[in-house]
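W.,

You were right to be curious about this one. When I first looked at the sequence I had no strong expectations either way, so I just let the prediction run and decided to look at it fresh. Below is the sequence, 218 residues in total, followed by the output.
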Amino acid sequence: MYRVKEAFYTLQGEGAQAGRAAVFCRFSKCNLWTGREKDRGSAVCQFCDTDFVGTDGQNGGRFATAEALAAHIRALWPEAPGRPYVVCTGGEPLLQLDEPLIAAFHRAGLEVGVETNGTLPAPEGIDWLCVSPKADAPVVITTCDELKLVYPQVLAMPERFTGMAARHFFLSPMASPSTSDGDTDPVKLSNTRKATEYCLAHPQWRLTLQMHKIIGID
């Protein structure tokens, strides 16, 4: 059984794939926070601004088989030129994403991207792997296509990850959990300046902004 909070067609907003059309498949549940506000203070990741609780979001639901979920995701891709691309996110997608589902996505013609906190081993077959470490949670994935670090995190500063085998290193300025408006969020504006300064001083890292929030799409 696969539990999906929501699934929707949009543009990837961050990192090396920014601007690319994709179907986002947001899985329910996370191993670093319950997703409920009453538990935020005791969570490993306390700055999350994403609703991943339940299966009641847009195109969400419970899917008994990998083939059913793959067909559901493929149906959200337009009949137009361009390779269909699914981004598996969460919550923490590796709590549910497995090799049978990856194989079903591939049979449906989908390229498979994953955005994970890196605390769980990744199954074989992922086409694009983005690791986004959170606080002091142990990262067991050491090789990836993209490392995207929310900045700043006292327990997860960039120096801790410079030795990872990643093709791309990104800093994403931390926002206030209560707002998605980057133009008026003073926390995010301050952190954007800090991330900019860090990237200038450490050019291994590149700045990435949440383009989807800037232009007002999901």
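Here's what jumped out at me. The CA atoms of residues 36 and 53 lie 8 Å apart. And, maybe more interesting for your project: Strands lie at 2-11, 21-27, 61-63, 85-89, 111-116, 128-131, 143-151, 165-173, 206-207.

Coffee later to discuss?

I.
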